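User: Hi! I'm working on a homework problem where we have to compare a predicted structure to a textbook description. Could you give me the structure for the chain below?
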Amino acid sequence: MNRESQALTPPIQLRLLPLVNGASVSVAILPIAQDLNFTVTEVLWILNAYTITFAGLLLLSGRLGDLFGHRRMFMFGLFWFALWALVVSFSTSPIMFILSRALQGMGAASTIPTAMALIATNYPVGPERTKAFSIFGAFGGLGAVTGILLAGGLIASIGWQWIFRISAIAAFILLAISFFVIPLTPPKAEKPKVDFLGAFTATLGVTGIVYYISTGVEYGWGSAKTIPVFVVAIILVVSFVFIESRVHHPLMPLRIWKVKSFTTSVALAFVSMAKFQGVIYYANMTFQEVYQWTAIKTALGFLVHSLLAVVVFGILGRTLPRLPLKPLILTGFLLRCVTALMFSFVNENTSYWALPFPAFIIHIFGVGLSLLPIQITAVRDAENKDQGLVGALYNTGLQLGAPFGIAILNVIAISTNGNSTGAVRGGPALMKGFRNAFYAMIAMGLFGFFLALVILPWDKPVRPAVKKGDKVEVEPSELEIGTIDELGRVMDESGSAGGEKEEVLGSEVVGEPVAAGRRGGDSDSSTIGSLDKLGKA
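Assistant: Happy to help. Predicted structure tokens:
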């Protein structure tokens, strides 16, 4: 493993931690509530305390990484996440648990966008970046289901506290590795200027929206506990956009939204995560309520999903550079619709092997074909100086989509199974409401499909499969070079004739800019060297 690969190991592995933590806690809600004597209204905050601070601080954390260094923000986030995970594990009361979880979410918010930025800034557009993001996504897909498996095993053996202790240990280990392998960020020539007013309005605005989405089902969408917060949040978000259009050093330069591929990717990330969380949550509910499975058996039911994620995402990491991304995204959304349709036919007499098992296989292929290309598309056209911001906005889309999806699906399921307060009949009878939730997931998948079809630009493969004897097109000039061997000969001639041909050949090859080395450097010499190697291949 080369040094650059070593440097990217902690950011990629970090993707696992927040998702494992979040998914495992969702399974551990009942034992946590029983041990710490949570009231009915307090139970809601076992999940929401973490989710709200995590989503609310993503934008600020990502931009601070751009300004002060992604390595610094990444390592701070790891330390903060680990510290408060440890504190959570020793909680003795609901208030201690809730506050510690909220502070832990702040640490997670500092790590995810900076991890994406470290990958994007260390790898130029091309196959290596695609592979790195595929592995990053694989750890994400693995994390959500691994959390369920971990929680099932720990709750049944040594207790829910070890969910957080294991997270803390893993984070401290990654922190130590990061200190040695992630290179230092060169200091900026100018002292970074922070848009404090923009940071204030954006953080509180997004936090308020997440609060409204997360608590609306429990408290009521129009109740005095939710609607004032939502109104203030919208005012803050509108104010934030106005501020960003006026200040000289904005937290979120509005030009970023003019990149069509990025804007569409954020919207697709929102829809994709809403549907993903819906499938995981309602599959879990189906196993426990309809099949009446124990927590450990439910965890084992997800095992195929977890293991297959590693295989599928690994394969995609090698094949995505050779394929256009838009058709894959469209195919992925359709496959995920098939998954929801299959689960809608489940009842208490349905064999796991007949429907849930194959549905999980189809689902992980659908997630890989949609979510990975969406993530790659989001960062592809952004400048290096904006990669932290891009990662933050992309992940904000994911974090807003997850509670939004669950909230909407819960409204549908609860309104079918019981009354608006959540009173339900229980057991297999709940499947009627679950079925309607799965129908809604099909609608979400179709919405994502048509959104990508209509708005997302058609793209070319990141790296076409070029073999000896293939033609290589050179853009933007109209120079045509017949074969790879010919290309090498022309390069040799250009080296002796002077810089004129170097300038022509140093343009774009096969429609993509030739990278000037992973960490910058002389673009002409890197381009000439790369093309010369092709000629001698």
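For your comparison, note the following. The first helix runs from residue 3 to 14. Confidence is low (pLDDT under 50) at residues 420-425, 464-468, 472-491, 493-537. Good luck with the assignment!
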